[in-house]
Design a protein that fits this description.
Elements (H helix, E strand, L loop, with lengths): L1 H28 L6 E9 L3 H14 L1 E9 L1 H9 L5 E4 L5 H9 L5 E15 L6 E3 H8 L9 E4 L5 H10 L9 E3 L3 H10 L3 E6 L1 H4 L6 H4 L2 E3 L1 E3 L11 H5 L6 E8 L6 H10 L1 H10 L2 E2 L19
Parallel strand pairs: 1-2, 1-3, 5-10, 6-7, 6-8
Antiparallel strand pairs: 3-11, 4-8, 4-9, 4-11, 4-12
Helix pairs in contact: 2-12, 11-12
Pfam family, one: PBP_like_2
Protein name: Substrate-binding domain-containing protein
Keywords: Signal
């Protein structure tokens, strides 16, 4: 009887030790928690500036280091689907087919919307007009002659801007005449600034918050007002127009976390959607998913300024 009890206790202790060892091993493999450690985040290149701003503040507030990998939308999606990336920032959510891939791996992506951005059209500041009709852009993609467009310039053939405009046109953008693609939004801005008549298609965030080295080129381009089909009004992609839903090429931004545990993916998503992160978005010129509250300080005494 004692031997059976001893064997039972010994077996229980072994199982307990194995469980503890397993937990310790899993924790060692995790390089991050919600507010500490290191993590890699894949970012749609067309919205990189705002994520760099958020990253800078997040890292000063917490003991965390985020490595941003800017890529085209298709490259980011492929990295997520192939388990190369666990955290990503995109301008769209997953399709039903893409979600099935994650379901097959027993992964439930956490998807958090945090801002509204826009696809913008730009021209050289030397251009005589600062307006464009969406119908003209679609006609140009379909191979029709349009007097005020000499060429369309995209950031990357696999980018979210190409996908967005392709869906609007109902036609895949693929080697049409006078339609060009570079690798980044930065290259588009530089090219359009130096080539009158070309229309660039970029993420609006690059105009609101360009890197300091690019500011000179941004000053040489003009953002176009856009008229959608059936409308007589040209609307510019201002923060106010985005907030009111007037600009026809608005798009939401999402952070997607597939880590499967409480890591920096969850922490950064909470930061983006929180008070501090939303204020950064508001200051950037984009539209936060929710408007941060305003703190009003009430003073009982009025102090006159001294001359």
């Amino acid at each position: 009887m004692m031997n059976k009890i001893t064997k039972t206790i010994t077996g229980f202790l072994l199982l307990t030790l194995l469980f503890v060892f397993s937990c310790q091993k899993n924790n060692e493999n995790k390089l991050d928690s919600i507010t500490k450690g290191k993590a890699t985040i894949y970012v749609d290149e067309s919205i990189l500036p705002i994520i760099e701003d958020e990253q800078a503040v997040f890292e000063t507030q917490y003991e965390a280091k985020l490595h941003l990998v800017p890529q085209s939308e298709n490259e980011v999606l492929n990295a997520m689907l192939n388990d190369t990336a666990k955290i990503a920032v995109l301008t769209r959510t997953f399709t039903a087919r893409e979600l099935q891939v994650f379901e097959g791996k027993k992964i439930t992506p956490r998807i958090t919307p945090f801002a509204t951005d826009a696809v913008a059209f730009i021209k050289s500041e030397k251009a005589k007009d600062s307006l464009v009709a969406l119908e003209d852009v679609i006609n140009f993609i379909q191979g029709k002659s349009v007097s005020n467009i000499k060429g369309l310039v995209f950031d990357n053939p696999n980018s979210s801007t190409v996908r967005y405009i392709s869906e609007l046109a109902g036609l895949k953008i693929d080697k049409q005449k006078n339609i060009f693609s570079f690798k980044t939004n930065e290259e588009v801005i530089k090219y359009v600034a130096d080539n009158e008549g070309m229309v660039g298609v970029i993420g609006m965030n690059w105009i609101f918050q360009p890197p300091l080295a690019l500011q000179e080129m941004v000053d040489k381009v003009t953002v176009l007002g856009v008229k959608e089909k059936g409308s007589n009004e040209y609307v510019f992609p201002t923060q106010d127009n985005l907030a009111q839903g007037k600009y026809p090429l608005a798009r939401h931004l999402y952070i997607i976390d597939c880590q499967g545990y409480s890591g920096l993916g969850m922490g950064f998503a909470s930061f983006l959607g929180g008070e501090r992160g939303q204020r950064i978005i508001l200051k950037s010129g984009l539209v936060p998913d929710r408007v941060p509250s305003r703190k009003i300080k009430i003073r009982n005494n009025i102090t006159k300024d001294k001359n």
